[in-house]
Design goal:
This is MIP/aquaporin family protein. This protein has helices at about 5-25, 35-60, 65-75, 80-105, 105-110, 115-120, 130-150, 175-190, 200-210, 225-245; strands spanning about 155-160, 165. By secondary structure, it is mainly α.
């Protein structure tokens, strides 16, 4: 299990759970048709949890180029590893989106709303305004990255002086804080753009949408916003974190 394979599998599972819930809520004839934002944000959060469980022990489970760039900026990983991480994240997102299409293929066929079909793959603005949409992605990703920097594993102090710390191993449940973080970002900030906060999460599935036999546009004119916005937000969070902790 290399970094590349771990990021592919972790991101693939994230996208299957995330884009899958959108398909379940949006596409015609599904058991979950018409379900709301709570279901969507919850499944995205749990998708992060599952992805981290799989990839965490092997790659740290970035699952997101914005996380990778932030950690490289702050010295958490070497810049030489960034291409491998991002390649895994993008490939995983592509595979995950394809499998969502496989599962819901019959429902895509009977759904007439081309915009709804695109929403099962990539994000889009509720109100199209370049500055506002970009700002939403920057702020959402800033919150994600900045809080991730402050998520620490639990420890206990040992010895008479209490000077020795021992890390408590929580296994898979150690991924819960990140899941809660993604959940609250979706609930609080996701209503404007669908909170991509992850360039691979948007670009990979959008590529899949463009290759499948859909009549509607893949909206490539908007596609740069969920790529550039998260990277800017990640860099702002990284520089602020370094300024506060140096």
């Amino acid at each position: 299990m290399s970094i590349l394979i771990a990021e592919i599998l972790g991101t693939m599972i994230l996208i299957i759970c995330g884009n899958g819930v959108v398909a379940n809520a949006v596409l015609k004839g599904t058991k979950g048709h018409g379900s709301g934002w709570i279901e969507i944000t919850t499944s995205w959060a749990l998708g992060v949890f599952l992805g981290v469980i799989v990839a965490g022990p092997y790659s740290g489970a970035h699952l997101n180029p914005a996380v990778t760039v932030a950690l490289a900026t702050t010295g958490g990983i070497s810049w030489s590893l960034v291409p491998e991480y991002i390649a895994g994240e993008l490939i995983g997102a592509i595979l995950g989106a394809f499998f969502v299409w496989v599962v819901y293929k019959d429902h895509f066929k009977i759904t007439d709303d081309e915009g709804g079909k695109l929403a099962c793959f990539s994000t889009g603005p509720a109100i199209r305004n370049t500055v506002s949409n970009l700002t939403s992605e920057i702020i959402g990703t800033f919150v994600l990255i900045f809080v991730i920097f402050y998520i620490a594993g639990p420890s206990i102090s040992l010895g008479i002086e209490g000077t020795t710390d021992a890390i408590i191993g929580l296994g898979s449940i150690g991924a819960i804080p990140v899941a809660f973080l993604v959940w609250v970002i979706g609930l609080a900030l996701g209503g404007t753009t669908g909170y991509a906060i992850n360039p691979a999460r948007d670009l990979g599935p959008r590529i899949v949408h463009s290759l499948l036999p859909f009549k509607g546009s893949s909206d490539w004119s908007y596609s740069w916003i969920p790529i550039v916005g998260p990277i800017i937000g990640a860099l702002i969070a990284s520089f602020l974190y370094m300024a506060l902790n140096n």
